[in-house]
Amino acid sequence: MSHSSTPPDSERNGADSRDPALREAFQALKAEDRTRVPDAASMLARARAAADSTSSTGTPQSPNPDVVPLRRRGALRWGVPGLSVALAAAVATVLLMDRAATTPDADFERVVEAWSTTGGAWRSPTDDLLRPPGDELLRTVPRIGGGSSLSRDPRAPRPDGPERESPS
Amino acid sequence: MSLTDLTDEELEARLVALHADSFGWALNCCGHDDAEAEDVLQTTYVKILSRRATWAERSSFRTWVFGVIRFTALERGRRERALARRAERAGRLDPDDLVGTVPAPDEDLDVRIGAAANPQAPRLREALAAVSDRQREVLHLVFYQDMTVAEAADAMGVSVGSARTHYHRGKERLRALLAVEEPA
């Protein structure tokens, strides 16, 4: 790995050659700090126990059980009212839909809809008047090369059909 | 080798080998407050051992651990500031009672360590409290931890150019502070 190689002296800032006073002061501070280093074994043992409890519960445990983490407190603050509102809305929707489905109007509409598809349903005798001549041109797509049935000469033989004999 | 390749025992062995240096860095990140530094280091170990912090092998193991320590200290500082603001809103406490930008150097420390302590250490600690956070970080990593500026930049999460600027400015400022405090 490149980062494990020793960098050149110039990259080492020249701290040894140009800043002996600062270096000496920092080394004095370091020696003093070394006298206060807490025990590594006990810290790692505590960390291992906390890490194990974290992995078993899925959430990091606070060192102080009385202290709820900030993120969890935020979730509690907004999560509980939000959940209540969502639940109330769901219940209201279900109740309204159920009520609408069982009203007399809804029953009557279902009966009418079923009856209108039967043969006995009333049909207006003037419905055909609403269909203008050539109405099929607006509702169908003409075939290429076939021509329109309206523009074709009725006396000409049909291109794709059998020859019709004249009745006379 | 990545974090997933290491067994728990190997990981702990690496952390033990780094422990003293890690504590020194945690002290620097926590304004030389022993209790704060120990808490930050403990949280860092939990993050690493539970594999919540992931080592992407872009840097050395030591640089990565230092980055996690620094982030944990910053996170803790942010949380404390948020708590202080909340307490201020509640009118219970003055935020200045809870949080300072840099904790004051421990005055009792020299007494606890004894007369044999090097007099340079407390002077340097006081001078370091007067430079900016970035300058203090890069100077610590270079002079205390013997890192290169590039490695320091990696641990600090800044560009090498930025770290170099902080390094030079911090060095000049520290020299000036130590010269002023030098007894006549």
- Quaternary status: heterodimer
Parts with pLDDT < 50 across at least 5 consecutive residues of chain B = 109-116
Q: Report mean pLDDT of chain B, rounded to a whole number.
A: 81
Largest sheet of chain B: none
**Whole-Å distance between the termini of chain B?**
54 Å
Number of helices of chain A: 6
Largest interface: A-B, 41 and 48 residues
CATH architectural type of the largest domain in chain B: Orthogonal Bundle
| String of helices and strands of chain B | HHHHHHHHH
Number of domains of chain B: 2
CATH topology of the largest domain in chain B: Rna Polymerase Sigma Factor, Chain: A
Shape of chain B: globular
Condensed summary:
The complex is a heterodimer of chains A (168) and B (184). Chain A has 6 helices and no strands.
Describe the structure.
The complex is a heterodimer of chains A (168) and B (184). With 168 residues, chain A is mainly α. Helices cover 52% and strands 0% of the residues of chain A. Chain A is built from 6 helices and no strands. Chain A has helices at 15-18, 20-34, 40-57, 70-101, 104-116, 135-139. The longest helix of chain A has 32 residues, at 70-101. The relative contact order of chain A is 0.02. Chain B is an all-alpha fold and 184 residues long. Chain B has 2 domains: 1-102, Rna Polymerase Sigma Factor, Chain: A (Orthogonal Bundle), CATH 1.10.1740; 105-184, Arc Repressor Mutant, subunit A. In chain B, 70% of the residues lie in helices and 0% in strands. In chain B, helix 1 crosses helix 3 (61-90) and helix 2 (34-49) crosses helix 3. The longest helix of chain B is centred in the middle third of the chain and has 30 residues, at 61-90. Chain B is globular. Chain B starts with 7 loop residues before the first helix and ends with a helix. The model of chain B is unreliable at 109-116 (pLDDT under 50).
